[in-house]
From TrEMBL:
Keywords: Acyltransferase, Transferase. This is GNAT family N-acetyltransferase. It comes from the Bacteria. PANTHER family: DIAMINE N-ACETYLTRANSFERASE, GH14572P-RELATED. The keyword ATP-binding does not apply. Residues 1-151 form the N-acetyltransferase domain. Gene3D superfamilies: 3.40.630.30. It comes from Actinomadura miaoliensis.
Amino acid sequence: MIRPAAPEDVPAILTLVRRLADYERALHEVKATEDDLREHLFGPQPRVFAHVAEHEGEVVGFALWFLTFSTWLGRHGIYLEDLYVSPSVRGRGYGKALLAELARIAVERGYGRVEWSVLNWNTPAIGFYKALGAQPQDEWTVYRLTGRALEDLGGGRAGREPGPEDADR
């Protein structure tokens, strides 16, 4: 069963986020809390959304997504931030059903695409996505600003030589 996430799903979603991060060798990077997810998924102006997969009444998978916009298409799209299905129920169609639900939403709302990133070494996921007809966008490279670089650019300090005021950073 695939359905929109509800506030009571937040603990299960966070558990699955941690399992995904562990699989991706990045558990140490998970800083999100239940309160964070609850606020952003169900607060007064949610800008991120989730669907869950249930098996025998238990949340066993999730897709967390948000809207993008393509200036070339002139339409919104869906960016799939995370897709995860518990290993114990893989192969039963939950991952495909989650992606199909996002595709259904995109088609229904007139969005132009559903896109996501996948780690280059994650061959099981790559094979799964290709089997669904998804195509890699090899000509694009993802860039990310985070941590000190983000703070420096956001604080107007990008491209300058570090000074004494940076000693505690």
